[in-house]
């Protein structure tokens, strides 16, 4: 391989495919390689159903599940926040032309052994079964305050310094109780644990606004035919702008020069030269550290999740305090309506950060919400993150996918890798301008 590339991307997970697309749009010469012969990596959708059973060494699927090729099972299911960063990327890059979405029908939070719809505006707050009469009014006032904040107008802050005072101080100002802070922090702001309480209030305010702005019947979207469509969409974007793809390269290995900086990637006895490498943690195991583990259960159901009003898709967040844990438990479900299962089947996922020596049992509060489970597949995965920024080696590594059932943390990691490599924050409008100009040409 005599061609020198600006960037070689290793792995076709969603993060790597987004970055490949963004780099190609930015005018970089990109080569994208993967050890597998399919797109998606850890974030792939597995089809047909036989392959999923084979992956987990469970023999052949039972005949009653039928039409095995109708199944597209996500290994790491997540939903898209309707006004979140990933949807903006899809819109601004034009990748939406390759995809079709359905709205997720319900967003719920677990409290006191039951699930409740997450209130997202003052009207729903007053009608919610999550709170008593007086607490509803306190939460309504807090929600109106957060939604009316103008970061450039201190008069709207009502005595809270949103850049210095903590989220906890804001809660205390409005007198909201522990249950309210649980569902606000975890089901609306989507924080992973209660560490956010000591952070400046501004970030939580922005997250509340995002949730409200994303709302239709639910603030989440899901692509038809599964999440495997997303990396393929960004791969097409990269190809349109000159990116080259090579799958089925099991021996792909990063090569360094005498200074310790990346020189290229070797495969099948040849070295493709490059100035930088973007990769998932599995391609640079000596440059990452384990920071925890995620346990996931993929479940096949023949019914919707109970107490969701027969919704064909739903998300449930179980805040840590409700089940005496340090981390939340996440539940999501999609169905035949999304072309990911044969009718009348549903696919549900329960996931959390591992805290004990018995990870499967940690999922029990979420599994108990599902009703009868026909098939269950457990998978424990290491949470890996890079040990350095990549500034010296020019190897820019993403983090493993966390336990959440939304893409907000995924996008934050993508934008962090972009900033480390490019030396500047990602600007949505610049990418959109480049695409518009290219189409005009």
From TrEMBL:
Biological processes per GO annotation: protein transport; small GTPase-mediated signal transduction; vesicle-mediated transport
InterPro entries linked: FAD/NAD-bd_sf, GDP_dissociation_inhibitor, RabGDI
Coiled coil: none
Signal peptide segment: none
Family: Belongs to the Rab GDI family.
Function: Regulates the GDP/GTP exchange reaction of most RAB proteins by inhibiting the dissociation of GDP from them, and the subsequent binding of GTP.
Protein name from the UniProt record: Rab GDP dissociation inhibitor
UniProt organism field: Macrostomum lignano
């Amino acid at each position: 391989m005599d061609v020198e590339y600006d960037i070689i991307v290793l792995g076709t997970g969603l993060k790597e495919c987004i970055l490949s697309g963004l780099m190609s749009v930015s005018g970089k010469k990109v080569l994208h390689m993967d050890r597998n012969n399919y797109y998606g990596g850890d974030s792939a959708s597995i089809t047909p159903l036989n392959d999923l059973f084979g992956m987990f060494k469970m023999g052949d699927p039972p005949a009653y599940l039928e039409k095995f090729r109708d199944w597209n099972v996500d290994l790491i299911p997540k939903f898209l926040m309707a006004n979140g960063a990933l949807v903006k990327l899809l819109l601004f890059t034009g990748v939406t032309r390759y995809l079709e979405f359905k709205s997720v029908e319900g967003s719920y939070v677990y409290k006191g052994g039951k699930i409740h719809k997450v209130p997202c505006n003052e009207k729903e707050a007053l009608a919610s079964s999550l709170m008593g009469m007086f607490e509803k009014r306190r939460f309504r006032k807090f929600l109106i305050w957060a939604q009316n904040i103008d970061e450039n107008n201190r008069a709207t802050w009502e005595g809270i310094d949103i850049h210095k005072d903590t989220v906890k101080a804001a809660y205390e100002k409005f007198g909201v109780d522990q249950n309210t802070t649980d569902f606000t922090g975890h089901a609306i702001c989507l924080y992973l644990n209660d560490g956010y309480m000591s952070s400046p209030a501004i970030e939580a305010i922005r997250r509340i606004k995002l949730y409200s702005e994303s709302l239709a019947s639910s603030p989440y979207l899901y692509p038809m035919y599964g999440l495997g469509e997303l990396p393929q969409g960004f791969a097409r974007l990269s190809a349109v702008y000159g990116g080259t793809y090579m799958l089925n390269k099991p021996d792909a290995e990063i090569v360094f020069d005498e200074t310790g900086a990346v020189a290229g990637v070797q495969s099948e006895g040849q070295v493709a030269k490059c100035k930088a490498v973007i990769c998932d943690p599995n391609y640079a195991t000596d440059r990452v550290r384990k920071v925890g583990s995620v346990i996931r259960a993929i479940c096949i159901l023949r019914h919707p999740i109970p107490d969701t009003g027969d919704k064909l898709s739903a998300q449930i967040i179980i805040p840590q305090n409700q089940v005496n844990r340090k981390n939340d438990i996440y539940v999501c479900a999609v169905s035949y309506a999304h072309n990911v299962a044969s009718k009348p089947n549903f696919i549900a996922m329960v996931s959390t950060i591992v805290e004990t020596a018995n990870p499967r049992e940690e999922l029990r509060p979420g599994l108990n919400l599902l009703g009868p489970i026909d098939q269950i597949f457990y998978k424990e995965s290491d949470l890996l993150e890079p040990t350095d920024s990549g500034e010296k080696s020019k190897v820019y590594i993403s983090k493993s996918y966390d336990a959440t059932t939304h893409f907000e943390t995924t996008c934050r990691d993508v934008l962090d890798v972009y900033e480390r490599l490019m030396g500047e924050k990602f600007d949505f409008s610049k990418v959109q301008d480049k695409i518009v100009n290219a189409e005009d040409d």
